[in-house]
Design brief:
This is Terpene synthase metal-binding domain-containing protein. With 215 residues, the chain is mainly alpha-helical. It has eleven helices and no strands. It starts with a helix and ends with a helix.
């Protein structure tokens, strides 16, 4: 039994290394370190985070999808918080809400590569689940991404479960690559903002804000 356990562990470890290698190659090909020097490189961090959500071999597709979404969400977040001007963010927000490659012509040059990469990630996600008739899942994921870019006032921030956090977006997206265990009812439930997601969002938001706060 111990030998079988060791073999199982080694096979899973090999799968995880293979996934991370594939994701890092995708990230390196995007060349954001040069194109977007202001953006954080969080690919490996994101992968280990998602491996804590589901490490099992049957969720390989889900891990790869969600790690890429986290990487792109981090770039979007850094663009909003650290680099872009208000005037630049207006067409950027509109482009993300519309999910249309034609919007790329309205963006500043430095935003174009990341916007195209964002659309490509979700298109790849849609193609991966299409053969099983699960395209509807990606629509939920897109709507969740749109919501994560909403910028409320402080009073709205307190009253509406902190919609800018992005936790709900990641929770919904995590279901996309999970196979038959997830049903349309699962997405309807997650999109209804249940209390467990509200509470998790509040914890995630304030932990992030405390970590970034400068006294």
């Amino acid at each position: 039994m111990l030998e079988f356990a060791k073999i199982d562990f080694n096979m899973l470890q090999f799968l995880h290394r293979k996934e991370l290698s594939e994701i890092c190659r995708w990230w390196k090909d995007l060349d954001f370190q040069r194109k977007l020097p202001y953006a954080r490189d969080r690919v490996v961090e994101g992968y280990f985070w998602i491996s804590g959500v589901y490490f099992e071999p049957q969720y390989s597709l889900g891990r790869k999808m969600l790690t890429k979404v986290i990487a792109m969400a981090s770039i979007v977040d850094d663009t909003y918080d650290s680099y872009a001007t208000y005037e630049e963010l207006i067409p950027y927000t509109n482009a993300i809400e519309r999910w249309d490659i034609k919007c790329i012509d309205e963006l500043p040059e430095y935003m174009k590569p990341s916007y195209k990469a964002l659309l490509d990630v979700y298109e790849e996600m849609e193609q991966s689940v299409a053969e099983h008739g699960r395209q509807y899942r990606v629509e939920y994921a897109k709507k969740a991404m749109d919501s994560s870019n909403y910028k409320p006032s402080f009073e709205e921030f307190k009253a509406n479960a902190l919609p800018t956090c992005g936790y709900a977006m990641l929770a919904i997206t995590s279901f996309v690559g999970m196979g038959d265990i997830v049903t349309p009812e699962t997405f309807k439930w997650a999109a209804s903002d249940p209390k467990i997601i509200q509470a998790s969002t509040i914890i995630c938001r304030f932990m992030d804000d405390v970590a970034e706060h400068k006294v």
